[in-house]
Amino acid sequence: MSGTLLELRGAIRRYDAGEQEILALRGIDLDICAGEMVALMGVSGSGKSTLMNILGCLDKLSEGTYRIDGQDVAALRADQLALLRRANFGFVFQRYNLLSQLSAVANVEIPAIYAGRDAATRRPHARALLERLGLGERLASRPTQLSGGQQQRVSIARALMNGGRVILADEPTGALDSCTGHEVMDLLLELNRLGHTLIIATHDPAVAAYAHRIVEFADGRIVSDRPAPESRPALAAAEPMPTIAQGEAPSPNESEAAPWARLAEAAHMAVLALLIHRLRTALTLLGVVIGIVSVVTMVALGEAAQRSLADDLKGLTTNTLEIYPGKDWGDPDQLRIQTLVASDVEALRRQSYVKEASPVVAQSTSLRYRSLNGSGSVNGVSGGYFAAVGLPIEQGSTFDRSDIDRKAQVVVIDSNVKLRFFGSTDPLGATIYVGKLPCVVIGVTGHNYQQESRGGSRLNVWVPYTTAGARLLGRSHLDSIVIALRDGEAPQLAEDRLTPLMIKRHRVKDFMVLNLAERIRSGVALFETMSLLLATIGVISLTVGGVGVMNIMLVSVVERSREIGVRVAVGARQSDIRCQFLIESVLVCLIGAALGVALSYAICVVTRYFLPPKWEMWLSPSAVTTAVVTATLTGVIFGYAPARNAARLDPVEALARD
Ligand code: ADP
Ligand code: MG
Questions:
Q1: How confident is the model at residue 69 (pLDDT cuts 50, 70, 90)?
Q2: What sequence ranges are listed for the domain ABC transporter (predicted)?
Q3: DSSP letter string over 55-89?
Q4: Which of 29, 40, 108, 318 is the most core-located residue (most Cβ within 10 A)?
């Protein structure tokens, strides 16, 4: 026999059980050599399982040292311990601890997955092991479809998967009838003959009798350590166990190869877990779907509103101010105030910040050209009006100084009038009747959004304001003044400077200033507030969905603690466990995102029938991206705490739970 493999010195394990502390191990010295078959025997509660967990690196000593191959395990980090477990130990439990959702082969494969082997190597090896142990017919069976003896043989195959240098069997026959129990013990004996070190914990002397050495336990102490009186001769080992080719055996410097295999395993387990609890998954999904739908439709709605607003702003001249009579909006005296006059315009025009100012008088009127009639509105303005409001002159010209001074009977018509009265013929020089006043057409305007939004297809004509005042309306006060500001002048500042000037001229504030830029800005601000509100609603719904995910994941971790314990025992790293649960929550969220996007698409299609065309909602790539990104983030954020809980679970405790 070779040298000492496992070495315990002064091993003490204490448990804090409320006020009193329990000493499960009270100072144990034990050496186990490679190739031994040792039975740890003692009554229930004597500390056998505690010792097994220590030996298998699932648990740590409170005091004393434990060396494997001369290496002190106390100094090792969690991942190094996981590596040690993978490389050296195979666990066989009293209650088999197979994962019920996996087939026999898949159960046997698990340790190799965490050792980073690819499917092409591990799958045939798992099959070969099961066939060698007489389960060739039951490869695809679930644990529940197997007898106790068969399940225990599957778990032995699992213990051998990574080599099984040391096999730790804690009451391996405890749940079996005596006949099956002896079969299992024969198998373990055979493994010992093939070179595996075996440590078996049992309370049953008949089981202990298989071993070559019996270490008897009582109350956390070794009371005797002797060779078995008549150890059973092992049956002649007929066939060796299948082994993985030398070069592929797990080595301490096992590379982090095949992380994809571990990821794929995690994803596979996540899908299985979701499928097992379909109703629960569906309800969790519902929360996420609602969240995603609100986020996506909010984004789509926001974009639609933005498009519509951009439409409204198009062509709008924002660098203008308009002055109207009246103390404020809705002043009942507005119509009686007659103080807005042409000299105000002259005064304003002299201000440094004013580029152009024009008086405006307006009235509805009848229009006539030869035998054609129409009704529209006539506006008295100055020549600068058109430039001030951004109305292009497409043909001819506007009024000049002398037209204003002479109260000339000239008119500028808009494209609607041109279309109605002149069709495709040239209107310049023709005479039309504005009310009863004959005027010569000198110009035609083009389109302008502001004009359109105020009148659509109405007929508009413009005459000099002096002409309108004297010859059409018989008054000299104005309806409003339009001011175009110089480029770069801030409308608000201009308004602040213009107001005192006008008050000084009128001695009272009997006018009001329409600052269109300000209006638009407050409109945009309102819209931005709305968008923010909508986005907040989306985020809140998604948060609620995320909390649902977290809730379910926390429950799931508790429910599956035994599974987690098994995985850790066969060598899973903490990161493997964390990854598995994170993938599960991200998967739920991504499925939710896919359903949510589909539902949002349906909503967009349906709303097209109800909303005005310019509010039409589209699922833009940005909305879909938002959905996927927020879903992933939700999964990670709300899955993080449960996944961390799972990874931090104490494997001994986890295995002890039901
Ligand atoms: P055996 O496997 O020989 O039946 P155990 O190793 O399971 O014995 O337990 C040894 C002693 O340690 C028992 O008295 C038991 O109550 C105690 N013990 C085991 N696990 C815990 C624990 N997690 N917390 C408190 N006491 C424990
Ligand atoms: Mg026990």
A1: very high
A2: 6-244
A3: HTTSS--SEEEEEETTEEGGG--HHHHHHHHHHHE
A4: 108
Q: How far is the CA of 24 from the centre of ligand 2 (A)?
A: 11
Atom 18 in ligand 1: residue holding the nearest Cα: 24
Determine contact, residues 39/207, Cβ cutoff 8 Å. yes
Cα of 170 to ligand 2 centre, how many Å? 7
* 47 CA closest ligand 1 atom index: 6
Model confidence over 179-222: pLDDT tens digits? 999 999 999 999 999 999 999 999 999 999 999 999 999 999 99
pLDDT reading at 422 higher than 50:
yes
More confident residue, 32 or 331: 32
Mutation to probe ligand 1, out of 23, 50, 168 (largest number of atoms < 8 A from CB): 50
| Atom number, ligand 1, closest to the C-alpha of residue 217 | 3
- What is the spatial distance between Cα 86 and Cα 70, in angstroms, rounded to a whole number? 18
Nearest-CA residue for ligand 1 atom 25 is: 15
Query: What is the C-alpha to C-alpha distance for residues 122 and 113, in angstroms, rounded to an integer?
Result: 8
Q: What residues does ligand 1 touch, defined as CB less than 6 Å away?
A: 15, 17, 22, 24, 42, 44-50
Per-residue tokens: 306? 């933005």
CA 288/CA 291 separation, integer angstroms: 5
Provide the pLDDT for residue 274.
86
- pLDDT above 80: residue 450: no
Long-range contacts of 398-405 (CB under 8 A, 24+ apart): 398/442, 398/443, 399/442, 399/464, 403/464, 403/467, 404/464, 404/465, 404/466, 405/466
CA distance 346 to 351: 9
Alpha helices, H only, 137-277 = 148-160, 178-193, 205-208, 259-276
Using most ligand atoms within 8 A of CB, pick from 16, 43, 44, 49 the residue to mutate for ligand 1.
Answer: 49
pLDDT higher than threshold 80 for residue 110: yes
pLDDT digits (tens, 9 = 90+) for 381-410: 999 898 888 888 999 999 999 999 999 999
Mean pLDDT of 262-281: 84
Please provide the average confidence, as pLDDT, over all residues in the chain: 87
As a whole number of angstroms, the longest Cα–Cα distance in the chain is 138
> Quick one: which ligand is closest to 650's CA?
1
For residue 30, list its beta bridge partners: 8
Q: What is the pLDDT of residues 545-558, one digit of tens each?
A: 899 889 989 998 98
Q: Which range among 268-282, 306-320, 377-391 shows the weakest confidence by mean pLDDT? A: 306-320
**597 to each of 289, 300, 591, 616, how far by Cα in Å?**
8, 11, 10, 17
42-45 CB contacts, 8 Å cutoff, 24+ apart: 42/203, 42/216, 42/217, 42/218, 43/203, 43/218, 44/203
- Round to whole Å and give the CA distance between 445 and 430: 16
User: Do residues 294 and 603 touch, judged by C-beta distance below 8 A?
Assistant: no
In order of start, what are the domains of the chain with their CATH numbers? 4-237 (3.40.50.300), 262-312+522-656 (no CATH), 338-509 (no CATH)
CA distance 463 to 382: 8
For ligand 1, atom 14, the nearest C-alpha belongs to: 45
Ligand 1 center–CA 83 separation, angstroms: 26
Residue with CA nearest ligand 1 atom 12: 24
